[in-house]
Amino acid sequence: MADNLLDNQASQMIRGAKAQQADMFNLALARGAQEADRTPAKATPNTRFLSSLLYNLGNISCIVSGIQRGRHNPDGKFTMNDISELMVGVSFSVGDVLMAAVSKDAPSEIERLEHGLKDHLQRHRIKLPAQPNAENIHKSGALPAVYDFIKNNIVSIKCITEGTAGLFMINAATKKGNLNKGKLAAGLLVSTGWFSTLLMNHLPPPDAASSLPDKIRDNPKGWIARPAAIGNNISNFIGAVNERKRFMGEVHAAEAALQTATAEEAGTATEKLRIARLKQHDYIWNMVSACSFLMANYLFGISSGGNKPATSAEEQAIASEVVNISAKTLASIPAEMRDAAVNQAAIYTAKQSHVGESRERIAEMIQEQIRAFEKTAPQPALAR
Hints:
Blueprint: H1 2-38, H2 47-71, H3 80-103, H4 109-123, H5 134-138, H6 142-152, H7 154-173, E1 174-175, E2 178-179, H8 181-201, H9 212-218, H10 220-260, H11 266-278, H12 283-301, H13 312-330, H14 338-352, H15 359-376
Antiparallel strand pairs: 1-2
Helix pairs in contact: 1-13, 2-3, 2-12, 3-7, 4-13, 4-14, 7-8, 8-10, 9-10, 10-11, 10-12, 13-14, 13-15, 14-15
């Protein structure tokens, strides 16, 4: 009797302690949600889509610029530099059209967090076994698979297309007789910036972004790609301004040469003046593209990639769901490999969910939820 009484008292004390911990966790969730409410929203759900429209406006300007420059050559033939100018816009467009398409189908906050968790684990070399479900079966097929691949890898695709466009820009800037130093610097900036971002996006992120190098590793798009892209736009604009001065100078020089030309030289001088007047406004398209890209890169840098919750209640519900998402995702990993995955999931959860709890406590909660899933999971039938 005494032993049973002590066991009952101990059980009640344990249940009370767990309930108190749960209350403290819920209080931390509410406090985190209140703090989130006081934080101004960084981007609207349509920020990335709006940036894609501005990108495409700049892309069209680059394509038109390449066509105009080719048509305004003395012989009317396109050089490789003119084709590269045109290909700058084409290369940019590949990523931007895809980004515009998938951005209209913006994921919910839960979907964003779940994909972010899986991406975080993959960057730490933690492989998750594929689990077919009703949604995957319904979406089976080549086109849905391609769409999902593009949607889940749109930032990497964007890095590749932007870096490639930078290489085309470098070649376009070195046109014979029209070296554009501003455009050359712009191409170097955009290619190195976006290719560096592509590389760092596939490196394991830091556990805590406290120092500047860790912050850069944690968010290479914001710390490398966006400044490089903005520097590219400024350099391109400066190059266009210098081109304007040079083209106007060529027109004035051709007019002066025609006035002083002899009868034999008049035909050549007239042709030079015609060419100079044809290309004197070619710089305008570079100015349009530079201004469009400048605003688009700013919007893309602050884009959130998902629909943000609007109220404290939604924040609290999402914060609670993150633990469940982590547990469900990791429940399929063999037990002997699970500790490292749980630790990384706790790091990700602590960063994303506005939970005022330590990483160790979150890891414990994930482990507890995994054990609860395992208890309720259907057991395989014994062979007879």
